Amino acid sequence: MFVGGVRALLLQSLHPLAMAAVAAHSGFRGDPWGRLQRTSTFLAVTTFGTADDARHAVERVRAIHERVRGTTREGEPYHAADPHLLGWVHAAEVDSFLRAHQRYGARPLDAAGCDGYLEDTARVAAALGVTDPPRDRAERLAAYRPELRATPEALATARFILYRPPLPLAARPPYAALTAAAVASLPPWARGPLRLPRLPLVEDLAVPLAGHAVTRTIRWATAAARPASAGS
């Protein structure tokens, strides 16, 4: 999820309207981990919570989206509740999570499992206001490519996420391994505008090894932290 989340943020930043909304209305620079926690809580509630809890979480997010509106530097209006813009954010998110899981997950999904995941996430996306969210692995990102470009805000966001995270020194090597895995999984058409050149030898050999090592360590640590079940 971490690798997929970083990849999704980098992809999403390439839409000028989405990036303008984040830059003007989000506090991710001042409190990136708090924002990450809120996003993770939303995903957890809408995935594992009751139907009522999921509905309330969706209603809260829709209310926030309704208030987020403005104009870009070029004077183009944006509104976070725009179904087309929500569709881009959702498509980039599920594509990133699925690709990261298939590459670094403990149990990659078969074809039916991939489509099942997209079908499940489509229910939440539709509730948020996305029109016709992806329900199978048919390519959806390509339709948005004519709208994408790297604005100054997108480049600043990429630098912040990849090179200037507010982390202690001890946490930076594993963080670098996770972000390198995220960057390596981006399509070439996204890496170019974000000025993230490909390093074939490093990305083909070192990055997968490091990515698997860190994700396995995280899985081990979270499993060890779970309380023992009754009677075990």
Record the SSE blueprint.
Layout: H1 2-12, H2 16-25, H3 32-48, H4 51-67, E1 69-71, E2 77-79, H5 83-104, H6 111-128, H7 152-163, H8 172-184, H9 188-191, H10 200-225
Antiparallel strand pairs: 1-2
Helix pairs in contact: 1-5, 1-8, 3-4, 5-6, 8-10
Describe this structure in words.
By secondary structure, the chain is mainly α. Helix content is 65%, strand content 3%. The protein has one domain (2-225). The chain has helices at 2-12, 16-25, 32-48, 51-67, 83-104, 111-128, 152-163, 172-184, 188-191, 200-225; strands at 69-71, 77-79. It has a two-stranded antiparallel sheet. Helix 8 (172-184) packs across helix 10. The relative contact order is 0.15.
Number of domains: 1
Q: Which structural class fits the helix and strand makeup?
A: mainly alpha
Distinct helical segment count: 10
N-to-C CA distance: 29 Å
Fraction of residues in helix:
55-70%
Total E-strand runs: 2
Low-confidence stretches: none
Question: Secondary-structure element sequence?
Answer: HHHHEEHHHHHH
- Determine Rg (CA atoms, Å): 18 Å
Which percent range describes the beta-strand content?
Answer: under 5%
Q: Biggest β-sheet: count, sense, barrel?
A: 2 strands, antiparallel
Please state the overall shape, judged from the principal axes of the Cα atoms.
globular
Overall pLDDT confidence: 90
Question: Which strand order spans the largest sheet, edge to edge or round the barrel?
Answer: 1-2
